[in-house]
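EI: anyone free to look at a 260-residue chain?
SC: sure, send it
EI:
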Amino acid sequence: MSNFGKISRKELNQKVNEDLNKIDLLKETVTAHSAEYTQFKGDTETEIDNLKSSVSNGKSLVATAITDQGVPTSSDAAFQTMANNIGLLGGGIKSIQNGYTTMSTELTKDVSMDTVNPSASVVFLNNISLPDSNIGSATSAVMAEIKNSNTLTFSKEMTVNNRLIHISYTVVEFEESAIKSFQKGIYATGGHLIGAGIPINNINPNNSIVWITHKYFTDNNNDNSVANFGVSYYLNSDEIYIVKSMGEKTLSYFVVEFKE
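SC: here you go
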């Protein structure tokens, strides 16, 4: 009987058979796990497909709801686009603040307000001085500016015998996503100029709104004091055209152009 070293042929055959059995067992294990992996992969892909379908259906529902509110939105639009379009709902208004204050001897007055974005907010007001037989009919118009995110500034030309001026105002803050362009500034008209154009960057007047407040003084020695008090204006694509009576006026203006 031949030997392989110290291992007999019988022992060698037994060792080979054991190794072959181990290989067969390993193959069976791999095959079993392979089937499990294939099942897991299939289940995962199915869940991913279901998730994609759910997201797609959800986007379609959201897009339809936004469109029904007047802002056309595609069902395959990006989420950021949908978020921007939601901001356009309700006219694109983010906040509204109303207030009341008075002025007497001071020429300027700061008034605190809730935080707004000065580059997306406008202010308009009404002001009146009640008649007083002791101090005559002289009065001043009041101009309003947004000084910063928390402050309004009211100003007038001069003090009129301590006359009390009543001021009611509204601050409107728009959603930035609703605004295409925003312009504001201060403009002083000439004393004898009846019509004047305030230059602005080009806008679409059909999608834009202009607000103007102004300060001007009239006294009771001027027979035309009531006529001198007013300012009329309209919006062109590259200017705000002012129509006013005689006398220099300082104006604060806001031009908001909305997205189509």
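EI: The CA atoms of residues 49 and 151 lie 53 Å apart.
SC: 👍
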